Amino acid sequence: MSDVYQLTISGPGKNALSTPVMQDIIRQLGAAGGRPVLVTGAGDAFCAGLNLKEVASLDRGGMERYLLLLDDVIDALFDYPAPLVTCVGGHAIAGGCVLALCGDVRVATADAKARIGLNEVALGLEFPPKIMKLARQRVAPRALERVLLEAGLYEPRRAVELGLVDEVAADAPARARAVLETLAAHPREIYASTKRTLRAGTITLADEDRRYFRDEVLPRWCAPAVKERVLAALKR
User: Fold this and answer.
1) Would you say 7 and 38 are in contact if contact means Cβ atoms under 8 Å apart?
2) pLDDT, tens digit, for every residue of 57-94?
3) Contact 165, 159 (CB under 8 A)
């Protein structure tokens, strides 16, 4: 299909989500201009998660800007008004898994060495409200508590069972593109309208959510003990 836009997540540290990488994702979605989007990661990873080096360096104001930018990326992907398929060709960890969850369909590599999961709790990081809402909407309800509390990193076939991805394929890019072509064959306006109706309000933050983020979540992310755990994770 000639009008597919391939959005590639690309940056140091296995495409870790630094501020520039997140800004580039939003820029690329704007450049897509309503065309069907295939989201991939550069190299042998999808996205290894948040840029922990940046996270460890932020004061409260910087952390707030960083996490709100992550919210903007989630909104831009989740609410994209056309078919959007995520192709998980390698590790999709923590924030990387969050981005994968935003796809209309999520296709993962069959490589058993790849790891997919939401391991924030293991790092001592509380899920911000928008990510929690996204997880509730996208992860299989029967597996939600296990996925979040176990904080495991799973091989792709187990990730399918838990609802983190929809399917695995030996040639994930080809399969993801084929799925995208199927979705894109539907009348675009009706597809976009149905998607918008299905998802309306599901990850929208209420005033209470914003207060909780500001008063509870943000201070925990900035706590010295959390910064120490994040720095320790960088050394592994």
Assistant:
1) yes
2) 999 999 999 999 999 999 999 999 999 999 999 999 99
3) yes
Q: Could you tell me if residue 216 is inside a domain?
A: no
Does 34 reside within a domain? yes
Domain count, the chain: 1
Place of tokens 């948040």: 50
Which residue has 């709790």 as its token pair? 121
Residue 141 belongs to domain with CATH number: 3.90.226.10
Residue 166 and residue 158: Cα distance in Å, rounded? 11
At 233, is the pLDDT very low, low, confident or very high (cuts 50, 70, 90)? confident
> Comparing C-alpha atoms, which of 177, 198, 178 is closest to residue 39?
177
3-class state of residue 202 by DSSP: coil
pLDDT digits (tens, 9 = 90+) for 156-168: 999 999 999 999 9
